[in-house]
Structures are given as C-alpha cells and as structure tokens.
Design goal:
This protein has 116 residues and is mainly β. It contains no helices and eleven strands.
C-alpha cells in the first residue's frame, strides 16, 4: 500500500525558511517521479516542483524558482523541499505526490503559513 507522509510545515515570518519532507513507503521509490504541490485557501492545487526518479530532471513553478529546491534520497525513500526567502503568497497546504506506473498517490499535506 502506497503511503506518503509529509512533515516540516509550520509558521514562519517572511524571509524565513522551512524544509518539508515526504516519507514514502509501499512502492519502489526510486522508480517514481515525485512532485510537490500546494493549495492555498480558495485556490486550486498547483504544481510547485517536480523531480524525476533519479533526480536528473527538475522543474519549478516560476514563482518559486530560485527560492525552493526539491531533492530526493532514493536510499531513505525521502522527498524534500527546501524553501527559502518565504513570502506570504507561499502560505498553503503542501502535498507530495508520487507517480508510479501511471498510478498517482498523494500525501495528507502539511500546512505552511508565512506572515508578513
């Protein structure tokens, strides 16, 4: 059974940093593309960052480029999102998503709140 558990969210002031983690289990983590999404109140869920199975290919939403860094550890089955220079517009619930053989799985999300 695929399981994704996010952690690391919290409340910070603008300009601060957080590191989100996503612990994966129940599938061959090194075979799956991984994604970070976020959903702000009243808005649709949006893709923030993606990373290929081996970490070779990485993409970011324009709004986070240069501030966020996605990475993965295929030995520990962990996905990370380092978020620096956070802005109030980054306030959202952040979700990790796995794509394995065409099947999609989501974590439960972790709240990030950035105050001005």
């Amino acid at each position: 059974q695929v399981q994704l558990v996010e952690s690391g969210g919290g409340a910070v002031q603008a300009g601060g940093s957080l590191r989100l983690s996503c612990k994966a289990s129940g599938f061959t983590f090194s075979s799956g593309g991984m994604f970070w999404y976020r959903q702000a109140p009243g808005k649709e869920r949006e893709l923030v960052a993606s990373i290929s199975s081996g970490g070779e290919f990485i993409n970011y939403e324009d709004a986070v480029t240069g501030r966020f860094t996605v990475s993965r550890d295929n030995v520990k089955n962990m996905l990370y999102l380092q978020m620096n220079n956070l802005k109030p517009a980054d306030t959202a619930v952040y979700y990790c998503r796995a794509m394995i053989g065409g099947q999609s799985s989501w974590g439960q999300g972790t709240q990030v709140t950035v105050s001005s």
